[in-house]
Amino acid sequence: MGSTTATQNRALWLSSFDKPLELINLPIPDATVGSVVVQVLNTVIQPYAEDIHTGKLPVFNLALPLVPHPSHIGRVYAVGSDAVLAKPGDLVFFSGSIHGRDDPDVGIIQGHHGGEGDSGRKLMQGEWRDGALQQYQKVPLETIFVLDEQRLVKELGYTPADLHELSFYVIGVGAVCEAAKIEAGETIAIGPATGTFGGISCDVALARGANVLALGRSEEKLQRLEKQLGNHERFRYVVMTGDDAADTAAIRNATPDGRGIEVYNDWASGGLTGSPFFSAAIRAMRPSGRIVLSGGPAGDVRVPYALVMHLNLKIIGKIMVTRTGVDLTLKMANSGVLKLGKRGGSTHNIYGLEQHHEAFRHAKKNSGFRVYTDIAPNAW
After folding, report:
1. Which of 1, 45, 86, 218 is the most buried (most CB within 10 A)?
2. Cα–Cα dist 95/174, whole Å
3. Domain 172-317 in CATH 3.90.180.10
4. 9-165+340-375 with 172-317: one CATH topology?
5. Beta-bridge partner residues of 139
């Protein structure tokens, strides 16, 4: 499990949205000041990854060519001279969210999202262009988190695939804890709830002591989610009909006191235009409630101006997570409050870089909450 001297860096190269990914050899990056080179052990493939690579999701603002894909679990291969904690051989989680060091308002997701405007484009096309679908990735020093290998691997028995579930949990923590600032005893509606991030956010909210209402159109999927979450006593679901008045009433009726929800966390997917549940959910809000938009749909949502004003509602956009949020996620995983891998009922189908076409097809057809498809550029 230790670091070794590498002779090549196999990588998946995206040169054009009109061409398939190509497996090539790239130079092994050098660990300069402020950076770390990590031997990539595992990264989970999102079901929409192939759509990004073919240009069907321009919202990600990728400027080609590059090695795609965001975060990973890896082992430190080399560190820059200013590293004070990380050292070669450390097991780490790399969070792909990067901010400009001289302008923290500029943000990208390495190998995955080009940010906004000229500044985001400059940051994406520079030092931090290439993502996780390679054997050795150079990343900013401040974006890695040294993991407690004794606790997570030797005691809890997690593999790199299990640990990369953290990449989803940190996004849920960003939405539920950082943006919504959920408190124990509050009620949060999450929808659509049966996808990966919706399910993750339900799990995070339950772990923080909240009452959770999962919103979805398929009762079968909602029942499966309920079972996956252990038939938790603070979990309920609402089958949405598309009738805003009826759905608003159903959400209110499902709250502990019938008075509505303090938080609505929207996870409308990238394949949608607008949000299917926003209109009903916002009308079920309690005064001073928080609406957190975390999905990736195209188009717009219609906001009831007077309602937002009269109820003092906050509408918050949240795409990633801060370092504090990642630290919180790791604490929850170390404590066992968040259960990964088999302990949480997850399954992983793992592929090598050479099998990437099969991996992308599998991810598109089979992904969901606790159902993952992974690529392992290096053996564990």
Report:
1. 45
2. 12
3. yes
4. yes
5. 36
| Separation of alpha carbons 299 and 307, rounded Å | 22
Q: What does pTM read for this prediction? A: 0.93
- Measured distance CA(111)–CA(157) in Å, rounded: 30
Contact 352, 12 (CB under 8 A): no
pLDDT tens string 117-164: 899 999 998 899 999 999 999 999 999 999 999 999 999 999 999 999
Query: Could you name the CATH architecture of 9-165+340-375?
Result: Alpha-Beta Complex (3.90)
Q: Is the Cβ–Cβ distance between 216 and 222 less than 8 Å?
A: yes
Q: State pLDDT tens for residues 14-43.
A: 999 999 999 999 999 999 999 999 999 999
The Cα-based distances of 345 to 95, 164, 280 in angstroms read 24, 15, 32
The pair of three-digit structure tokens given for residue 90, joined into one six-digit string: 């450390």
In this predicted structure, the answer to whether residue 307 has a pLDDT above a threshold of 80 is: yes
Question: What are the φ and ψ backbone dihedral angles of 19, each rounded to 5 degrees?
Answer: -125, 145
Does residue 167 sit in helix, strand or coil? helix
Amino acid at 11: A
Structure token digits, residue 314: 């906050």
Q: What percent of the chain has pLDDT over 70?
A: 98
- Cα 75 from chain centre: 20
Give the whole-angstrom CA distance, residue 94 versus residue 115: 18
Q: What is the pLDDT of residues 51-65, one digit of tens each?
A: 999 999 888 899 999
Largest CA distance in the chain: 64
